Amino acid sequence: MNILFDTNVFLDVFLERDPFFDASSQVVAFAEQGKLEGWICGTTVTTIHYLLAKALSRKKAEKNIKELLKIFHLSNVTRVVLEKCISKWFYRLCRCSAIPVGYSY
Question: Domain 2-100, what fold?
Answer without folding.
Answer: Rossmann fold (3.40.50)
